[in-house]
Recover the amino acids of this structure.
């Protein structure tokens, strides 16, 4: 089986973003739309259907995310999701959501009322303590524990596939 690419790296969302849709994915074609995969739709461009994911585990300077530090991620205006989008914080050891005092260590565009910037973008904050006045956009992390995040787009639009919309990088807030 010929692999079209093993990992697609994109300088967005973090220094390295690995798109789950292309991770070790063989090339699908009209003749063989399911080349050896249980979930071939992950490799297809399905505008307005399904979901797409990008994960970030490094900050904008190439350092692993540290639960004892504070970070900011800008989600530009009009995320390319017809239904909704979310950003979730995960534990790299268990690959489950981080165990914090928040019931959901995430922000989701339908569920959460977030502070929107004047330009229509949203700044998300991650850290052990909420930044003053930004609690609505904060996801708690755990000191002494690494973490990674996953951007999820439900019913992704063309802007995701043609890369005209890109999330910001995860930036350390000093």
């Amino acid at each position: 089986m010929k692999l079209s690419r093993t990992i697609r790296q994109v300088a967005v969302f973090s220094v390295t973003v690995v798109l789950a849709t292309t991770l070790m994915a063989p090339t699908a074609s009209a003749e063989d739309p399911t080349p050896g995969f249980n979930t071939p739709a992950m490799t297809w461009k399905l505008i307005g259907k399904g979901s797409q994911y990008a994960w970030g585990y490094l900050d904008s300077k190439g350092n692993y995310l540290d639960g004892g530090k504070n970070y900011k991620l800008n989600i530009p205006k009009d995320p390319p999701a017809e239904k909704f989008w979310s950003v979730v914080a995960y534990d790299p050891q268990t690959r489950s959501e981080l165990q914090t005092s928040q019931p959901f260590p995430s922000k989701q565009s339908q569920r959460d009322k977030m502070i929107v910037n004047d330009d229509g973008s949203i700044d998300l904050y991650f850290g052990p303590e909420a930044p003053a006045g930004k609690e609505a956009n904060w996801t708690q992390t755990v000191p002494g524990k690494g973490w990674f995040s996953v951007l999820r787009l439900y019913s992704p639009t063309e802007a995701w596939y043609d890369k005209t919309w890109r999330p910001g990088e995860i930036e350390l807030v000093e």
